[in-house]
Amino acid sequence: MNKVLKIERYIQEFFSTRYSDYRLFYQSEHQHRRVVMYQLKNGSSLMDFLISIMGNIEEKIYVGKLVPQVYANPEKLIEYMKWFKDYLNENQKLLDINKSGDNTSYIIHEIQSIKTELVEMVDYLLMIYDTEDINIPYQELRHSLIIKDLDSFIRDMNSILASVSYAISKTQEGYLHSNIHLILKLLGFDILPEETTNIGRIDAVIRFSNIIYIFEFKLGTSDEALNQIKDKKYYEKFIIERKEIILVGVGFDAENRNVKDYKMEIHK
To answer: What is the mean pLDDT of residues 136-148?
Structure first.
């Protein structure tokens, strides 16, 4: 089962045991909003928040098949889920101002519970997207990129490259790129080799739910590789996605047929 099917199945299972309770609470509070909800601090905004939560659940999440019916691709689904989590957290202040210890309204307790469960749901979905379907021997290598530990990533990559037979190893950049791309594919990465921009081709783009890595591999120095990314502005086409963009220049040693050094830079 691929990660999108796992995400969709989890969403169905999550709401199958919760949706009716959410809906019943929403209907009750909406019906009596003037005598209960509106008596709380920022009660009107709090009601709008609850209405929005239910609207998003019913129109964007708990609607059956999500990809490609509701979202054109997995990236769009993950982008929406991240937005929904941010929206929920941004409105936590509406709950906080109404908390008063043991005297806190049952309404605040219930909305807080719903909000917390939904944020945890999104966190789990992002974890599935970033870590599921991993070939077990390579989990540490993938995890290194997720937590932005490039030192460990390059160290482990070198170890894998060193296992390639000397007889079939070539020094041309093309062969080195092929080896790297093969390894990354085995990891289950959403990798785009030779990604085209308006002024050149990026060696590799690796996407996570909130990070985009742009790699350039060079038979030479990491400075040359990183400078090519920056000089040709390979990052420009990804800025609109509003994710953290990490530029990585990798220098290969032709004699040792392995990574010599690397340099990374977070695009500002």
So the answer is: 73
Distance between start and end Cα atoms, the chain: 37
pLDDT of residue 165: 46
User: 219 pLDDT band (50/70/90 cuts)?
Assistant: confident
Band of residue 195 on the pLDDT scale cut at 50, 70, 90: low
Contact 184, 206 (CB under 8 A): yes
Domain containing residue 248: CATH number: 3.40.1350
Long-range Cβ contact pairs of 41-46 (< 8 A, separation 24 or more):
41/97, 41/98, 42/94, 42/97, 42/98, 45/94, 46/94, 46/95, 46/98, 46/107, 46/111
Placement of tokens 């985009």 in the chain: 212
Place of tokens 């689904």: 77
Count of structural domains, the chain: 2
Domain encompassing residue 227: 136-266
Q: Which residues touch 241 (CB under 8 Å, ≥6 apart)?
A: 79, 212
Whole-number Å distance between alpha carbons of 157 and 177: 13
Checking if the pLDDT of 26 tops 80, the result is yes
Instruction: Over range 238-242, report the average pLDDT.
Output: 86
Closest CA to 103 of 41, 46, 30: 41
- If asked whether residues 110 and 204 sit together in one domain, one would say no
My answer on whether 114 and 154 are in the same domain is no
Residues 52 and 123 occupy one common structural domain? yes
Cα separation of 2 and 188, whole Å?
A: 11
Do residues 267 and 235 touch, judged by C-beta distance below 8 A? yes
Q: Which among 96, 131, 166 is the end of a domain? A: 131
Q: Are residues 127 and 8 part of one domain?
A: yes
